[in-house]
Amino acid sequence: MKRNCQRVENLTGFTLVEVLVVLAIMSIIISLTLASLNSIRPKNRDMKRISDVGHLQEALEMYRGENYVYPASTAVVAGQPLVGPNGVTYMNVIPTSPGHLDGSCATDSYTYTIQNSGLSYTIQYCLGGTAQHLSAGNLQAVPGQLGVPVAAASSLPTYYPTSGLLAYWPMNGNSNDTYGSYNGTDHSMSYVTDGLSQAASFGGSSYIDYGDVLDMGTNSQTINFWMKTNTSPSTYTGIICKSKYASEVGRYWIDAGGNAPGYLEAGCANAPVDTHITKLYPYYDNTWHMVTGLWNRTGNMSLYVDNEYFTGTSISAFSAANWQTADKLLFGVYNDTNGTSPKAGSYFNGRLDEVVFYNRALSTSEIGTIFNGQKSTYFTSPTGTIANWNFEGDVTDSVGSYNGTASNLSYVATGTNQTASFNGSSSMVTIARTADLEPTNAVTVSTWVKLNSLTCSTCAGGMTGAYLLFKKNAFAQYFEGYTLFIFGSKFGFGISTGNSGSSQSTYALANASTGTWYHVVGTFSRPTMKIYINGVYQSTASHDYNISYDTGVGMFLGRTNNAGFDGLLNGYLDDTKIYTRALSATEVSNLYNLTKGNY
Predict the structure, then answer these.
(1) Structural contact between residues 492 and 508, judged by C-beta atoms closer than 8 angstroms
(2) What CA–CA distance (Å, rounded) separates 395 from 254?
């Protein structure tokens, strides 16, 4: 009995200190658990948001695949099914956001908005933290992109449309995509001060590797960029390529030197057929050019240079094809036959700037907006203009003091400008004689012209032709000065010397047409004369004499002072300029590109 009592005495409880320690430990564990839950829950909500938007995008693509456009904004309502006009249900229940504000988010909802007449869309949503390589904050999903930071979209130059934009590479010191998430890996690349700010410089064995990204899928596509090179390759040289030297479905590319030196090419492949378009164009003039490759899956594959459509071919037969390839997207070189490494001998030598990718075909007006928004950066206006008649309701010289006197002239609106209309029977402009407009061994004359007729109704013998600008002496037999004219349906540039009989002209290569605006430029730097049409060199002549002038004769626009052949113009003139030097080919091209948007 005594032993049993002893056992009872040994069964003592926890001391107060021990209880307090246990409670403290339990409190810490509960606090840690709650903290962990508070951390996990926002991440779980972010994962739900990403999953919701991704599944909605999948349903939207199925909808467009059968209905050709994305659904209207009113058809995408949280908690409701997504049903097409054909009665097909593409999503049983459109997801609802978690309904909790995380991080810096001011709202928690999915806002769907249709764009570009149903060819694109945006879904606005917000993440509380970084998840699946998507940044925290306000995001917008677009076709092909799960989450583009809204801040990146707002920093995009305003001339770029955001609808369908997948990637924007400004090439400012690196190959990063500042709009999406497609950053490149540089190989022997350098970046130079040129273009909009900096530009990527390619040469030798340099290229940019973006990996297996940006397949065209079932979408249309536009690639727009600026390029500059003084090299005309004789073999295929990759500029932007998701393509290799082997037949495979899903490839696309823009290259140089495709058919022969001087060619630009855009192409795509739907195995076993390669479809490509080529255009001979003097892009290798060490001048910046904007190149646009456009793949419209229900229409044409087209190639534009400097906002001008050059060539295209239908690819509508491939409208349903899902173009996917394991080839890498490379800038500055082609893929080799393995599709994962550069092909020797196909490296681009030049510079690239402002590269953008869209998962839709941009309109011609959108391409023009991009070009007009950037042209003043890439094209420098020639200096040294001594006279400029831009015909904004009068014949005032806008840079000098050489105002004209108009006879029977009218003014009509063309784009944002006015132009001078010549009636072909009595209209002309006379500029009084001044020594400043009488250079002796170098001159450039430039004008925009549109012809109503190629026939001179007042010319002797029914001769065809007309004069745009005319500086002539008092001798009816010979020119004495410089002139731009059209004769035999071709534009020409003429130089003459006194009454000695020494004169020379050089002509455009192709016939002119009525109803079309042309930019005509003649340059003379003794002994070389050149003529350019729409920024492109045409022909050369030699005239190894100084120009001389009759001090009693001024200048005429729209006619001559020769009663036997007055060459009265039936058409329009605008932006007529004179320089006392010969502009270079680059300056002529720049002048054309800077002003062509007005016509």
Answers:
(1) yes
(2) 46
Task: Give yes or no for a contact between 514 and 452, defined as CB atoms under 8 angstroms apart.
Answer: yes
Mean of the per-residue pLDDT values for the chain? 84
Q: Which amino acid is at 79?
A: G
Residue 293 to residue 241: CA distance in whole angstroms: 12
Lowest-pLDDT range of 270-279, 344-353, 473-482:
473-482
Amino acid at position 546, single letter: N
Each residue of 495-552: pLDDT tens digit? 887 555 577 888 888 899 999 999 999 999 999 999 999 998 999 999 888 887 777 7
Q: For residues 472 and 488, give the distance between their C-alpha atoms in angstroms, rounded to a whole number.
A: 20
| Secondary structure (H, E, C), 303-317 | EEECCEEEEEEECHH
Q: Which residues of 128-262 form beta strands (DSSP E)?
A: 137-142, 145-149, 165-169, 185-187, 190-194, 197-202, 207-209, 221-228, 237-242, 252-256
Helix H segments across 210-363? none
Distances (CA, A) of 320 to 57, 219, 326, 443, 542: 19, 9, 19, 57, 58
Residue 237's contacts (CB-CB under 8 Å, 6 or more residues apart) are 255, 256, 257, 334, 346, 347, 348, 349
Residues 86 and 373: their CA atoms lie apart, in Å, by 42
The alpha carbon dihedral of 151, 152, 157, 160 has a sign of negative
The two most distant CA atoms of the chain are separated, in Å, by 154
Cβ 110 vs Cβ 52: under 8 Å: yes
The band of 29, judged by pLDDT with boundaries at 50, 70 and 90, is confident
β-pairing, 517-525 vs 404-407, is unpaired
Q: Which value, to the nearest 10 degrees, does the dihedral of the CA atoms of residues 508, 510, 515, 520 take? A: -20
What lies within 8 Å, CB to CB, of 455 at 6+ separation is: 462, 464, 570
How far apart (Å, rounded) are the C-alpha atoms in residues 105 and 190?
Answer: 39
CB of 280 closer than 8 Å to CB of 321: no
The DSSP code sequence of 570-595 is: EEEEEEEEEESSPPPHHHHHHHHHHH
Structure tokens at 392: 């904004």
pLDDT digits (tens, 9 = 90+) for 274-301: 677 676 666 778 889 999 999 998 888 8
3-class secondary-structure state, position 495: strand
Element spanning 115, H or E = strand 111-115
CA dist., res. 261 & res. 234, Å (int): 5
Q: How many C-beta neighbours within 10 Å does residue 489 have? A: 15
**Do residues 239 and 348 make contact, with C-beta atoms less than 8 angstroms apart?**
yes
Task: Quote the pTM value.
Answer: 0.73
